[in-house]
């Protein structure tokens, strides 16, 4: 991923078979579907990909199979986040050796490091690889926020290229944008894709784009073509679908959308279960309303 890459990056789900193992054939099919839809990169082993449930070896194979499936057609972004610095660095080095193009690092979770401890953590990751590093701010999940002051300190690393901001705090997103013209700021909330672009952001890392890439891609394409009415309409459709995420435990809704579209994503790993039938009907109705089905 060169520093000028912008646009829509789907947070790719990890499909599973009934026995709980990864369905690598379906995984490769999904990646090809996303590339054909016009995405600008793919993000694997993130929250949507259930990284917290995957083994080290499974994560390594996700990179290998992505290389087999899509090669160099778009950059492969790998989530190397973990609780400890040691594991995060090990995953980062593995990802570089296996051919990933970019590293994304979420904050540690379950624990609450100080800002100095976070600086040391991210410094170790940036220092362990020559790959571009994208920070991932998702305090609703981790309870550990990334501040603009911390990002400013980390700009001393040439390979710290950007941040995915899933905080939902758009004032903070703007603060990140104002730190440096070189810093790529990506919307992590699907409802803020167009707003982020309008204020100079690089694009979005979107979980909905994993199932409905055409919706997110259309926002970006209409934006760059200065077709603002169409961009607003596409953002509205995507926002309606995003509201359905509350129907189930993440990423069950994303997988259900893919299933309704004819893919075989399987269920999330337990304890997350399938959507109840009444909620499936609500989701299906929404997909029909926005003309996805």
Automatic annotation (TrEMBL):
Active-site residues (renumbered): 136 (proton donor/acceptor), 164 (schiff-base intermediate with substrate)
Pathway named in the protein's UniProt entry: Amino-acid biosynthesis; L-lysine biosynthesis via DAP pathway; (S)-tetrahydrodipicolinate from L-aspartate: step 3/4
EC assignment: 4.3.3.7
Taxonomic superkingdom: Bacteria
InterPro entries in the record: Aldolase_TIM, DapA, DapA-like, Schiff_base-form_aldolases_AS
MF terms (GO), sorted A to Z: 4-hydroxy-tetrahydrodipicolinate synthase activity
CDD domains linked to this entry: DHDPS-like
Binding positions for pyruvate per the UniProt entry: 205
Keyword Nucleotide-binding attached: no
SUPFAM superfamilies recorded: Aldolase (SSF51569)
Keywords of this entry: Amino-acid biosynthesis, Cytoplasm, Diaminopimelate biosynthesis, Lyase, Lysine biosynthesis, Schiff base
Reactions catalysed, as given in the entry: L-aspartate 4-semialdehyde + pyruvate = (2S,4S)-4-hydroxy-2,3,4,5-tetrahydrodipicolinate + H2O + H(+)
A single BP term in Gene Ontology: diaminopimelate biosynthetic process
Pfam families, alphabetized: DHDPS
Protein family: Belongs to the DapA family.
Functional description taken from the UniProt entry: Catalyzes the condensation of (S)-aspartate-beta-semialdehyde [(S)-ASA] and pyruvate to 4-hydroxy-tetrahydrodipicolinate (HTPA).
Protein name: 4-hydroxy-tetrahydrodipicolinate synthase
